[in-house]
Design a protein that fits this description.
Elements: E1 8-9, E2 36-40, H1 44-55, E3 59-63, H2 67-83, E4 92-95, E5 106-109, H3 115-128, E6 135-137, H4 144-151, E7 157-161, E8 171-175, H5 182-194, E9 198-199, H6 204-226, H7 232-243, H8 249-256, H9 258-272, H10 281-288, E10 302-303, E11 309-310, E12 328-331, H11 335-346, E13 351-354, H12 358-377, H13 383-392, E14 393-396, E15 407-410, H14 416-429, E16 435-438, H15 445-452, E17 458-463, E18 472-477, H16 483-495, E19 499-504, H17 511-524, H18 533-544, H19 550-557, H20 559-573, H21 582-589
Parallel strand pairs: 1-4, 2-3, 2-5, 3-4, 5-6, 6-7, 8-9, 12-13, 12-15, 13-14, 15-16, 16-17, 18-19
Antiparallel strand pairs: 7-8, 10-11, 17-18
Helix pairs in contact: 3-4, 6-8, 6-9, 6-17, 6-18, 8-9, 11-12, 11-13, 14-15, 17-19, 17-20, 20-21
C-alpha cells in the first residue's frame, strides 16, 4: 500500500495549519499518536530531515517563509511517496505560518548558516512554543550556547551538528551546552535515534577545521570545472573512485546547497583572508541565477522530481570501440607495472612484462603470483582466473618482446628523462598503430609522445595504486593523439573492468590537482598550536564519510611521494594552493616518510 498523497499538503494562499491538515496517526485506543515535530527552514538540511522524520512516522509541521520553496519540497515529497511502496505515512503540513508550531512536541531549526537568521528563527519558534519544548538548531559552526542564550530559554535549546544534509544512517553530532536541560538532552537523543541517524562525537574545533578543509576542496572543484578541464561527471567520478569519497565534489555541493556553501565560503574568506575560500566565480553566478543544486532541481547536475540525478552517462556510452587489442605489453617491474600486468592477464589478455634484466622480470612475475594467491584467499580472484592469468603472463628483459603487442603500457620510474628514453625505444620497436601509453600522473604525456616520434599513437592511462583493486583510470589525451588511439584506450580500459574519466594532458590530471591542495591545507594546520591530527582525521571520517582523514592519507601515500608531487604541481602552476607546506619538506628531511618506514604524521614504530 502506498502512502496517502492527499496527506502531503502544500501551502497555498492560506496556510495548511489553518485548514486542519496537521493530523496525527489514526486514533484508536491501542494506537499512540504519532509524534508531532516541527521543522523551520526547508533548504537541503531541512528537507532531508523532513524525509527522515516522515519515514520514521512523525507528523511534521514544515515551515518556510518562501511559498515557492514550500510548493517545491511538497511536490518532491509527494513524488517520492508515490514512487515507493510502503505503509500509510502520517501527515505533513507545509506552511509559512510559525504559529502552527504550537502543536509540536519538538522543533528543529534548519535555516541558513547565518547568526542573525538563526537567532531570528529561534526567536520566532520560542515565541509560539510553550516553555519546555525542545528546540534544536542545525548549525555546523555557530556557537550553540550563544544562540541558546539569545532565545531567553537556554535550557530548551540544543544543537544538531550536521556536516552534510542527513541521510539514513548518516552521522550527526548532538550538541548540548552547559545550560541544556536533561529533558532537552534526552529529546535530542530520542530524535536522533528515531530519524535513524548515527551519533558521533567530533567537537567544535575539529568540526570547524574539517569543514574548512572540505569547503576549500569543493571550491577548487568548481574552479576546475569552470576552466573547462573536465566535465562535472568526470570530476565527480574521478574523486569518488580515485579517493573513495561517498560522493563527488560537485554532487556534494548540489546536496549541501550552492547558496549554503557560498555563504559558508564567504564567511571563511572574510574571517581568514585565505583566497582558497573566495567563492569560485561560477559558484557566485549560479547562486545569483537561482541554480542552487538539488533543492531547486538544477545545479552542477540536473535532478528529477524525486531528487535523482538526470543524465548521468554510463561508462563508455556513445564511444567507438577502437581497434582490437590481442596482446598487451607492460614496461617496468615496480609495484605499478606488476599491478597493471596482473589486471591485464586476469582480464584474459596475453601479457608480456619487460624488465631491465631477467632477475627483475622473474621477481615481478613471482610478485604477481603472490598477489593473485592473496586475491584468491580474499575472494577477489577465482582459482580458475589465477591459473589462467599465470599462463597468460610472461616475462622478458628485451624490449623486442613488445614488437607484436597491440598496446604497450609504460610504468617505469616517474622521471621524464627516463620515460622519454623508453618512448624513443618503443617508437622504434613497436609496429605502426600500436597504442603507446604512459602511466604518469604528473609528467607531460606530450613530452613522451614527442620522444616516440609517433605522437598520434601516445596516450596517458593513469591507473591508481593498487591497480588490481582501484576502479578508476584517468585517460589523458594530448592535442596530437589520433581519435582511434583514444577510442582503443577507452575500450581497452572498459574490458579491464575500469571506469575511465577523460581530461587533457596537464600535470596532476583531475585527482591530484584537487587532492594535493586539500592535503597541503591540512598540513598548514600544523602551524597552529591547537590543531590535533587525530581529531581532524576523525572529523573528516565521521562527519563527511571520507575513508580516511588527510593526515592518514598523507602517511599512506608517503610524505616523500607527496612532496615530489606537490613540487611538480607548484613548478607547473606557480599558484599558492600547490606550494608545498614548509612542514612537509621538514618532515621528509627528518626521515618521516609515513607507512613505508613506520614514521610519519600518524604512524610510529615498526613498519605496518
Amino acid at each position: 500500500m502506498t502512502a496517502r498523497q492527499s496527506d502531503i499538503t502544500p501551502a497555498t494562499g492560506t496556510t495548511a495549519a489553518t485548514t486542519g491538515t496537521v493530523t496525527a496517526a489514526p486514533a484508536a485506543s491501542t494506537v499512540a499518536p504519532a509524534p508531532v515535530t516541527g521543522i523551520v527552514g526547508l533548504g537541503p538540511t531541512g528537507e532531508a530531515l523532513l524525509h527522515l522524520l516522515h519515514d520514521a512516522g512523525h507528523t511534521v509541521v514544515a515551515v518556510d517563509t518562501d511559498l515557492d520553496v514550500l510548493a517545491r519540497v511538497a511536490g518532491r515529497l509527494k513524488a517520492t511517496v508515490a514512487a515507493g511502496d510502503g505503509p500509510d505515512r502520517p501527515d505533513v503540513a507545509f506552511t509559512a505560518d510559525h504559529t502552527a508550531l504550537g502543536a509540536a512536541g519538538l522543533v528543529v531549526e534548519a535555516v541558513q548558516e547565518d547568526l542573525a537568521a538563526k537567532t531570528e528563527a529561534l526567536g520566532r519558534i520560542t515565541a509560539v512554543c510553550p516553555p519546555g519544548t525542545p528546540v534544536l538548531t542545525t548549525t555546523a559552526a555557530l556557537p550553540v550556547t550563544r544562540l541558546a542564550i539569545a532565545t531567553g530559554r537556554p535550557a530548551d535549546v540544543a544543537g544538531l551538528r550536521l556536516f552534510t544534509p542527513p541521510i539514513p544512517g548518516g552521522p550527526v553530532e548532538p550538541v548540548r551546552t552547559a545550560l541544556t536541560s536533561p529533558e532537552t538532552a534526552a529529546a535530542v537523543d530520542a530524535l536522533v535515534a528515531s530519524a535513524g541517524l548515527t551519533p558521533v562525537a567530533v567537537g567544535a574545533r575539529p568540526a570547524a577545521d574539517a569543514t574548512a578543509l572540505v569547503l576549500g576542496f569543493l571550491n577548487r572543484a568548481v574552479i576546475l570545472f569552470d576552466e573547462g578541464y573536465a566535465t562535472q561527471h568526470d570530476i565527480d567520478t574521478a574523486m569518488r573512485l580515485g579517493c573513495g569519497l561517498p560522493a563527488g565534489p560537485l554532487e556534494t555541493l548540489d546536496r549541501i546547497g550552492l547558496g549554503t556553501a557560498h555563504a559558508a565560503l564567504t564567511e571563511l574568506w572574510r574571517r581568514t583572508g585565505d583566497s582558497a575560500f573566495e567563492p569560485a566565480p561560477l559558484l557566485s553566478r549560479m547562486v545569483a541565477a537561482g541554480r542552487l543544486g538539488r533543492t531547486t532541481g538544477e545545479g552542477f547536475h540536473t535532478y528529477d522530481e524525486t531528487g535523482a540525478v538526470l543524465g548521468r552517462p554510463a561508462d563508455g556510452s556513445g564511444e567507438p570501440d577502437g581497434a582490437p587489442v590481442r596482446r598487451v605489453g607492460v614496461l617496468g617491474s615496480g609495484a605499478m607495472a606488476r599491478g597493471i600486468a596482473e589486471v591485464t592477464a586476469t582480464a584474459g589478455y596475453p601479457t608480456v612484462l619487460v624488465a631491465r634484466d631477467p632477475e627483475k622480470a622473474q621477481r615481478a612475475l613471482d610478485a604477481v603470483a603472490d598477489s593473485l594467491t592473496r586475491g584468491v584467499r580474499r575472494g577477489r580472484v577465482t582459482v580458475e582466473a589465477k591459473a589462467s592469468a599465470g599462463e597468460l603472463l610472461t616475462g622478458a628483459h628485451d624490449m623486442a618482446a613488445l614488437a607484436d603487442c597491440d598496446l604497450v603500457i609504460e610504468a617505469v620510474a616517474e622521471d621524464l628523462d627516463v620515460k622519454r628514453a623508453m618512448f624513443a625505444a618503443l617508437g622504434g620497436v613497436c609496429a605502426p598503430g600500436t597504442v603507446l601509453a604512459t602511466t604518469t600522473s604528473s609528467l607531460s604525456v606530450a613530452a613522451c609522445a614527442e620522444a616516440s616520434g609517433r605522437p598520434a599513437d601516445v596516450v596517458g592511462i593513469h591507473f591508481f595504486n593498487p591497480a588490481p583493486v582501484m576502479k578508476l583510470v584517468e585517460l589523458a589525451h594530448t592535442d596530437t593523439v589520433a581519435p582511434e588511439t583514444l577510442a582503443t584506450a577507452h575500450a581497452f580500459c572498459r574490458t579491464l573492468g575500469k571506469t575511465t574519466v577523460t581530461c587533457p594532458d596537464r600535470t596532476g590530471f583531475i585527482v591530484n590537482s584537487l587532492l594535493f591542495p586539500y592535503l597541503g591545507a591540512a598540513l598548514a594546520l600544523l602551524e597552529r598550536h591547537d590543531a590535533d591530527i587525530e581529531e581532524t582525521d576523525h572529523a573528516i571520517r565521521s562527519g563527511f564519510g571520507y575513508p580516511m582523514g588527510p593526515f592518514a592519507l598523507l602517511d599512506t601515500i608517503g610524505l616523500d611521494v607527496s612532496l615530489a608531487i606537490q613540487n611538480r604541481l607548484y613548478e607547473c602552476f606557480r599558484t599558492p594552493e600547490y606550494e608545498p607546506a614548509a612542514a612537509l619538506d621538514e618532515l621528509v628531511v627528518a626521515g618521516l616518510l609515513g607507512r613505508k618506514n613506520g614514521r610519519g604524521l600518524r604512524t610510529t614504530g615498526a613498519r605496518r
